[in-house]
Structures are given as structure tokens and as C-alpha cells.
Amino acid sequence: MKKHNFSAGPCILPQEVFKEASQAVLDFNDSGLSILEISHRSKDFVDVMEEARSLALELLGLEGKGYKVLFLQGGASTQFLMTAYNLLQTKAGYINTGSWSDKAVKEAKIFGEVIEVASSKDANYNYIPKGYKIPEGLDYLHCTSNNTIFGTQIKDFPTTNAPLICDMSSDIFSRQLDFSKFSLIYAGAQKNMGPAGTTLVVIKEDILGKIERQIPSMLDYGVHISKGSMFNTPPVFPVYTSMLTLRWLKKLGGIAAIEEENDKKAKLIYSEIELNPLFKGFAKKEDRSTMNATFSLINEDLKETFDAMWKEAGINGVNGHRSVGGYRASMYNAMSIESVAALVDVMSDLERKA
Ligand code: PMP
């Protein structure tokens, strides 16, 4: 039986994408060849790459606005350093809202001055800082839209005349935003887009070419753009599977349609966390993420019973991250509301039993 998979990433993807992707491993486009054995320069694969790039732009509403799309390797973690390598000349601002932002800060410091414009580290990142002042003269301002570990999400993005860079690894394609506010967006594929192994980078071309340092080719956005994201062998299977997920999302009605579903799922779990006296939420209410709900048992003595109950109900992946503890229910785009209801049922069953 298929489990209700609440894993934080890698995570659930649409079942039909799994089916189509596995078929392509056996026989891609009725070619008599596997997607894994054809040249990345073959027309069939170049078409996949082009469709993936154009679907990403279309879904984000960024067509014709000077953006380029890349599918790179090295995970979102490589983007922590690539952004700074390509764009940090003197000083950059960072909003520190979680362990991933913190890692981005650490990498950027190798390349120049980093100003932590705001941080919620003082409260183990359970909120999104607000009302901070952004200094003038930044090369860019970096933020993390959704904090996967802590379950917080930025609802109002900062306004600045510096280019805005955003790590959207765990909520890309999940909610409508004015994506043209961002000069660079990056996201590891392994949440809302595809398997681990590729990272989406959407970049406004005119922010490049402003720094003096030499950049090694593999870390140079300009090089990847000039080669159509095919400077070297791309991660063919992750790109193909991401393309299938983006097709799935488009067919469903795009980000507007999935946002409605995501809001319903989030409402369901958060109202249970609020109403059930056995549980408490971790993130500040106004900053709660629609993708990752973090919560814990008020009485830890119930842990063994609760853990046995959710496992029995076919639920997977709800253990919280070690830096927060408790539980984390990740409800990415492909998760159905029925799966969230299954978890909520277990939570209310526990209340009846306790
Ligand atoms: N940023 C965020 C918000 C993440 O959730 C993660 C991974 N879960 C990363 C960055 C790091 O991604 P990767 O493992 O692809 O380097």
C-alpha cells in the first residue's frame, strides 16, 4: 500500500510522474532506448531541457522579462556560494531565518562583507523577523522564502532597490508571488519539482557581469546561460522528471490552482494543532509555513503511543528535525488532502484515547 509520505525532501512527487518517469527508464519516447542511455545532445533530450526551462518560466509568470532558467548540479548548497561568487563585490545583506540561511551567510563571507540585516536565531528561528532596516548600497539582499526545518515562511518579502535573491528550495511553485520582484531564485529540485540531483536557478541576466573576480567556468552563471544549461552533461534524469512534474502542475491549473489546495491542507493540520490540547505548534502563527508544519506533544509520555498510531495508519516521515524535535508534516504540492486528513485523524484519535 502506498504510504502517506510527509518526508521533508526528497519527498512525495505525483504518482503519475513516478509512472511516466519509470517508463522512460525502460523505453523513452518509444525510441527503443532508455532516457538513461541516450546522449544529452540528442534532439530528444535537448527537447526535454528546453521544455523544462520554458515551463519553469511560464509557471512563474516570468516569460519575456529578461530571465534565464538553468538546471544545475550541486544542490541548493552550491547556490549558497555561487550567488556570492557571481554577485558579491563588496557587501551583501542576508536575512537569517534558519539553518539554511545561516549556511548561505557562512559561504558568502568567503567572498566579501556580509551584513545580517535581520535574524530570528535568538528564538531558534520560530518566527520571521519584521520591521528591520535594510542598509543602502548592498550588492544584493538574500532571503529564504520557506524554512524547511522550522516551519516558517516569509509572507511579505522585503522591499529594496538591491537585487533580491531568494532560496525557494522548499516552497517553489507552491504559492502565487510576484516572482519578478526577485533577481535570482534558486531551489533544489527535491521538494516540489523532482528527484534530488538538479537545482533550478532562475536569473535576471542583467545582474551579471558586474564583479571583477575571475569565476571558474562551472561556477559561472554566464557560462551556463551561454550554453543553454548544457555546458557539461546535465543531470538528465532529474531534469526529465522535473519537466514531467512541471507539466503535471500546468495541467492542474498552475500555481494558482495548487495554492488553493496547499492552503486547504495547511488549514486542516493547523486547526488540529490549535484545537487538540495534546499538541502545540512550534512556529509563530502569522509566520507558519504552508509546506512544513512543525509541532510537538505537550506530554512526551504519549510519544510511544502516538508514534505507533501514525505508523499503523501508513504514515511516513513525520519525525521533526533534530534541531527542533517533535514532529514535522511536510505537505508539498503532490500531497493529497486525504493524506493530511489521515494524519489529523490519528491526532484526534490520540486525544480520544488519552
Ligand atoms: N535551502 C533550503 C530551504 C532547504 O530546505 C535545503 C535542503 N533541504 C537546502 C537549502 C539545501 O539543499 P541541498 O541539499 O539541495 O543542497
TrEMBL record:
Gene3D superfamilies the UniProt entry points to: Aspartate Aminotransferase, domain 1 (3.90.1150.10), Type I PLP-dependent aspartate aminotransferase-like (Major domain) (3.40.640.10)
Q: Does the keyword tRNA processing apply?
A: no
Question: What Enzyme Commission number does this protein have?
Answer: 2.6.1.52
Q: Where does L-glutamate bind?
A: 41
- Chain residues that bind pyridoxal 5'-phosphate: 76-77, 100, 148, 167, 190, 232-233
Q: Which reaction does it catalyse?
A: O-phospho-L-serine + 2-oxoglutarate = 3-phosphooxypyruvate + L-glutamate; 4-(phosphooxy)-L-threonine + 2-oxoglutarate = (R)-3-hydroxy-2-oxo-4-phosphooxybutanoate + L-glutamate
Task: Give a Pfam family name.
Answer: Aminotran_5
Q: Which GO terms describe its biological process?
A: L-serine biosynthetic process; pyridoxine biosynthetic process
In which pathway does this enzyme or protein participate? Cofactor biosynthesis; pyridoxine 5'-phosphate biosynthesis; pyridoxine 5'-phosphate from D-erythrose 4-phosphate: step 3/5; Amino-acid biosynthesis; L-serine biosynthesis; L-serine from 3-phospho-D-glycerate: step 2/3
**What's the protein called, per UniProt?**
Phosphoserine aminotransferase
Organism of origin is: Aquimarina amphilecti
